[in-house]
């Protein structure tokens, strides 16, 4: 085998045992790695009882998975997965972390964690040594304080010569409290947010996973060809000078002002002209380090920002666009310093900025409309109020007061509020299938997501996994699935054209995969499986494609301001494109994978699951 | 003596990309092997990476400490060279080094120390190509000042953070 | 006189059209030509944010409209 080890490490926290699990090469050829392989494992292990598996219970698996291109393609990402507490389906949530390289150096392609620990633990892996250690000195700690405590924990490892501390994946207080909008964290401000897997880790009482690998990465099949392709890709990446200078922080201004597609006040508006949040302001006033890169990356789009408000010091990334937009303009906050502080708080608490910013804005809108009152919350929720946002985000992380309700995420909170108040508030929820929509709107039609981007995605509102036509192109979710399975970072991955990307994969692995195979077999195979598990759903919510394969109601309201005032999307167009998209993927008119498609993709064993879905929906 | 080179480190320019570690291990081991890279990035405080590797101390305490004479000084570059056949992995060079720079790596027969790639260091080249320019080749200062770069990376990162806090 | 066509993908196509074909007198650098078009059509992107391919391979910067007669254009950065 080239490029991969062909095995993952399985750790059972209930029995405190671990073992290596080998998979045949055939499975890697079919599912690649990362998101694809995680989906396969989840299907095999939990598929037959999927609806009954509680994502926050001991049966769920937490999967950490690299792919064949991990370590060889510039940049680094790995995929976190499991049954998602947000969508009840499978999300391949990407995060940048050196753990990806250390895992491969240690001899594994990934880790699958099952069961639940009795008391809080962390896992320490060093090559074939796997230890489940008490996390009593770490549980409850957050941010830099946690990182310091972890470093002290690991200080006693004997070393020959000075070595850097090994990297870790970890959760903050939000994950510990099983908040559904909690992320899995790495370093300071890196997060796997989509899917809510921080809550899964918390439900397993798993505070951190630390990995050190002392061996080499597996050899590539064609090292000379790989070298050539790598130089080719590096050259293209190095041309993106603007990106290195400002990262995605520039979006906080441009996605609002230029493409008119930024969430503002729970998506009530999408355009603004507030120069106070221009990336220049962040750069001049708050950036202390520029650029900051991840492993193997010549692009280096990150920054370190620092803000001081009162006697508290806040450290975070740029912030990156999604965090900045969701914890800034989406809350009506147009102050760069406050945006840095809120982003830093979200990191410290281990919360996904998108999911949490979304439910906070949802709550603020309901308060402004008088549906939530001061009796419900205990304090006023207003747009543009930093102190209120600061308090609310902590309340969510610790499940205090209204925070306990909002910690369930926008969709479930909306259902609960409807129950409590007798008012249907789902129309104010900007989410798809339990997952809040990423900060790229579709009404102005100037941004990249197409009208079916979120409605048809198997990962709901995930802006990094948008569906689109034509199916055999970079626009489609099949291409995104490849990125998340290979695993390649979006920001270096976009520099390579499709042919180069496939050649790259083959140079590492020695495989002979073609672009056609990617678009017609591998992509649809993974998407079909994810779609099936998503529609199986349960145990608390289920999706009906006839109702839920749609955009949030707000996305049909015309934009109220800006140069694209009045612009919106038409439901008829969405329905039409959905049908077209399903047909291309070999799914029926409800977006349910057809039997002949499943047979062609080697997923015959999934046919009974499809019958279960049809039966629940009354479609047999 | 005048030919001896030294790699100057600019901590504020280092992005933490580890392209140097990748290049170093590819050059010396033929595969990507971060644990076997002679240069290591210590990112104790996220966002403040510190490149850490041999500074070629003018008095070469590691060379003096080696009981089997496995370590010697390269006349041309001034780098410490390790003879794999003579090294017995006793660790005395690590003890003698003010910064514990030499490392013993799993499955490698000898200790690893930066050898300056014979005069044209790969790490410098890749750091320049990527446009960070955090590593530069200069003449060896031939002065104990180089040992300052062996201060514990944790201390160095805290010092840098303190500078940022003061607004420097 | 030669014809040169540009196929715009995804949301670019809803802004500019799925395919535009031009009749050109002389050989023009493709990147500059596309830059002119997106400025003309007030598209909120710079050419640096676009990936221009010919039959799946990214084009070299000096490629002209006389070298190939059709290219596909995608937006590069999605998300973040």
Model description:
The complex is a heterotrimer of chains A (620), B (168) and C (80). Chain A has 620 residues and is of the alpha+beta class. Chain A folds into 3 domains: 7-212, Aldehyde ferredoxin oxidoreductase, N-terminal domain (Aldehyde Ferredoxin Oxidoreductase,  A, domain 1), CATH 3.60.9; 224-436, Aldehyde Ferredoxin Oxidoreductase Protein, subunit A, domain 2, CATH 1.10.569; 477-617, Aldehyde Ferredoxin Oxidoreductase Protein, subunit A, domain 3. Chain A has 25 helices and 17 strands. In chain A, strand 10 (184-186) and strand 11 (190-192) form a beta hairpin. The longest helix of chain A is centred in the last third of the chain and has 22 residues, at 515-536. The mean pLDDT of chain A is 96. Chain B has 168 residues and is of the alpha+beta class. Chain B has one domain: Alpha-Beta Plaits. Chain B has helices spanning 19-29, 61-65, 92-96, 122-129, 153-166, and strands at residues 5-9, 40-42, 50-52, 71-73, 80-82, 135-139. Chain B is globular. The model of chain B has no long low-confidence stretch (mean pLDDT 95). Chain C is α+β, with helices and mostly antiparallel strands. Chain C is built from 2 helices and 5 strands. Chain C has a 5-stranded mixed β-sheet. In chain C, a hairpin with a 2-residue loop joins strand 3 (50-54) and strand 4. Chain C is globular. Chains A and C meet through helix 20 of A and helix 1 and strand 4 of C.
């Amino acid at each position: 085998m080239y490029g991969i080890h062909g095995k993952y490490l399985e750790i059972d926290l209930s029995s405190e045992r671990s073992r290596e699990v080998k998979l045949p090469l055939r499975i890697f050829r079919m599912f690649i790695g990362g998101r694809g392989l995680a989906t396969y494992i989840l299907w095999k292990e939990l598929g037959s009882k999927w609806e009954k598996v509680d994502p926050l219970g001991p049966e769920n698996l937490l999967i950490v998975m690299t792919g064949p291109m991990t370590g060889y393609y510039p940049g680094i990402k790995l995929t976190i997965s499991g049954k998602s507490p947000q969508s009840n389906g499978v999300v391949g949530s990407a995060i940048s972390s050196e753990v990806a390289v250390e895992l491969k150096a240690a001899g594994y392609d990934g880790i699958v964690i099952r069961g639940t620990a009795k008391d809080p633990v962390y896992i320490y892996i060093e090559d074939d040594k796997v230890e489940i250690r008490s996390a009593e000195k770490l549980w409850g700690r957050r941010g830099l304080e946690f990182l310091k405590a972890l470093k002290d924990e690991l200080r006693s490892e004997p070393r020959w010569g000075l070595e850097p501390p090994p990297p870790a994946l970890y959760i903050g207080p939000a994950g510990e409290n099983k908040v559904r909008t909690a992320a899995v964290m790495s370093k300071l401000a890196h997060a796997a947010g989509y899917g809510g897997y921080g809550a899964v880790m918390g439900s397993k009482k798993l505070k951190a996973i630390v990995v050190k690998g002392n061996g080499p990465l597996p050899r590539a099949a064609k090292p000379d060809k790989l070298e050539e392709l790598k130089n080719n890709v590096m050259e293209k990446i190095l041309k993106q000078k603007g990106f290195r200078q400002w990262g995605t922080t520039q979006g906080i201004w441009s996605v609002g002002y230029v493409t008119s597609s930024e969430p503002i006040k729970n998506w009530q508006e999408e355009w603004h002209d507030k120069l106070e949040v221009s990336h220049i302001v962040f750069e001049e006033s708050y950036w202390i380090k520029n650029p900051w890169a991840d492993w193997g990356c010549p692009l280096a789009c990150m920054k370190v920002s620092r803000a001081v408000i009162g006697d508290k010091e806040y450290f975070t990334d740029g912030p990156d666009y999604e965090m900045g937009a969701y914890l800034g303009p989406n809350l009506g906050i147009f102050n760069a310093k406050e945006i840095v502080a809120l982003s830093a708080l979200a990191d410290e608490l281990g919360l996904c900025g998108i999911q949490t910013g979304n439910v906070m804005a949802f709550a603020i809108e309901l308060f402004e409309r008088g549906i939530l009152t001061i009796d419900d919350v205990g304090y006023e929720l207003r747009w543009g109020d930093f102190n209120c946002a600061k308090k609310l985000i902590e309340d969510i992380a610790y499940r205090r007061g209204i925070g306990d309700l909002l910690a369930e995420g926008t969709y479930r909170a909306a259902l609960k509020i409807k129950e409590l108040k007798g008012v249907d508030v789902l129309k104010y929820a900007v989410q798809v299938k339990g997952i809040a929509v990423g900060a790229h709107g579709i009404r102005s039609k100037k941004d990249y997501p197409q009208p079916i981007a979120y409605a048809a995605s198997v990962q709901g509102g995930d802006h990094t996994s948008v569906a689109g036509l034509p199916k055999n192109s970079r626009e489609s979710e099949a291409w995104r699935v490849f990125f998340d399975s290979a695993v390649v970072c979006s920001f270096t991955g976009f520099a390579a054209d499709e042919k180069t990307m496939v050649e790259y994969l083959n140079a590492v692995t020695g495989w002979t995969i073609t672009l056609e195979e990617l678009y017609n077999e591998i992509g649809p195979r993974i998407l079909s499986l994810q779609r099936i598990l998503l529609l199986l759903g349960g145990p608390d919510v289920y999706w009906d494609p006839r109702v839920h394969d749609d955009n949030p109601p707000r996305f049909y309201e015309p934009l109220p301001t800006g140069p694209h005032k009045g612009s919106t999307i038409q439901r008829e167009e969405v329905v039409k494109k959905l049908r077209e998209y399903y047909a291309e993927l070999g799914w029926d008119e409800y977006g349910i994978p057809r039997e002949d498609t499943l047979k062609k993709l080697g997923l015959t064993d999934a046919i009974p699951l499809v019958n279960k879905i049809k039966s629940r929906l009354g479609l047999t | 003596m005048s030919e001896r080179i030294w790699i100057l480190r600019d901590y504020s320019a280092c992005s933490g990309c580890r392209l140097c570690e990748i290049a170093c291990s590819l050059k010396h081991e033929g595969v990507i092997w971060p644990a076997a890279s002679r240069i290591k990035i210590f990112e104790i405080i996220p966002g403040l990476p510190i490149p850490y590797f041999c500074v070629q101390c003018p008095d070469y305490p590691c060379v003096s400490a080696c009981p089997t004479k496995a370590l010697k000084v390269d006349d041309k570059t001034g780098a410490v060279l390790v003879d794999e056949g003579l090294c017995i992995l006793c660790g005395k060079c690590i003890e003698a080094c003010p910064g514990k720079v030499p490392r013993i790596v799993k499955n490698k027969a000898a200790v690893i120390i930066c050898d300056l790639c014979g005069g044209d260091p790969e790490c410098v080249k890749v750091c320049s190509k990527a446009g960070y320019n955090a590593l530069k080749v200069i003449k060896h200062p031939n002065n104990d000042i180089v040992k300052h770069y062996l201060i514990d990376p944790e201390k160095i990162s805290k010092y840098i953070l303190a500078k940022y806090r003061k607004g420097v | 006189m030669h014809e040169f066509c540009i196929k715009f993908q995804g949301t670019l196509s809803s802004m500019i059209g799925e395919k535009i074909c031009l009749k050109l007198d002389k050989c023009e650098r493709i990147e500059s030509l596309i830059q002119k078009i997106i400025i003309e059509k007030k598209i909120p992107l710079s050419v640096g944010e676009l990936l221009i391919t010919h039959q799946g391979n990214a084009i070299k910067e000096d490629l002209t409209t006389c070298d190939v007669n059709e290219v596909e254009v995608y937006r590069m950065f999605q998300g973040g």
